[in-house]
Amino acid sequence: MTNAIAYLDESAAGWERTLYAFLAEKERRSGSLRTVQSYSRMLQHFFGRAGKTPDQVTSQDVFAWAYGAGLSGKQPGSITIGARIACLSSFYRFLIRVKVLTSNPCDALERPRVVQGAPRGLSAEQIRRLLDIVPGTPVGLRDRAIMLTLTFTGRRRAEVLGMTAGSIVVEDRVFYIYRGKGGKTGKRELPRPAYEAIRTWLTNQGKDLESMSPDGSLWPDTRSGRGIASGTFYTNLRRYLKAAGLPPGGVHIFRHSAAKLRREAGESVEEVSRFLDHSNLAVTTTYLRRLEGQEDRSWEKVAEAIGVGLTATSERRSRESYTKR
Question: What is the pTM of this model?
């Protein structure tokens, strides 16, 4: 990290070492470089703005920063406020654990209630529409291969975009090796449509898995030759979604879609949980419930009780009328 601790002077070198230790532990425990980078940016912003060392920070300092405008000049929403407080509180809990400080200035703050937006998973028909509008250009072939890999594996963005030639193992079947969130690693079958799309893309680029360097990216940028940047694929995806007449969304929509499609294909919650590498079934159950919506199985009895029940015929006509709208 370059100029990571802008607020520190020579007398505060100990704080710099402590912050690096905190970020190193965070990366080891989370297994996510993106998380570490995000925490580093927030801590730099806070301490650079406060102009204080950690032992000088007050609850008022934290409040002013958490609820204040960010670098963009916009007022933060509840998710951003919560993330800021969580980041700073995590750092102070670390300082307390290593016996550098004895109190956490974040403890006096009440975190805002976060209203989660309902995740959206694309249906099979929507996935088809999306794939249909992706052009057959070199960039389109690459993006199509990435989309199919995301949909069939359910892996996160960084896990797929970080794939290399060495990630693909061809035995009696084709497998992919991954390192997921929290340091989880695994070797799973790579479904044939995703594998064929990858080979088609590489062939277009005059490459093949057998002759590529094991650490060579599966998705080299068509101009630079380096691995595709996350922002580049995100920008392309937004354009494809718009052209397909679908609502805007991020790359994580494919993970939602993968879970939704497998559940609809008849997989159990336990199977979907293993597929997503969730830590426990409760996480998967909540995930699927928010994706699927919850069926109301008692409304007919309530309607009958209050005298507004529908006959079987009128109920069927009502549903047909609604479907045709």
Answer: 0.63
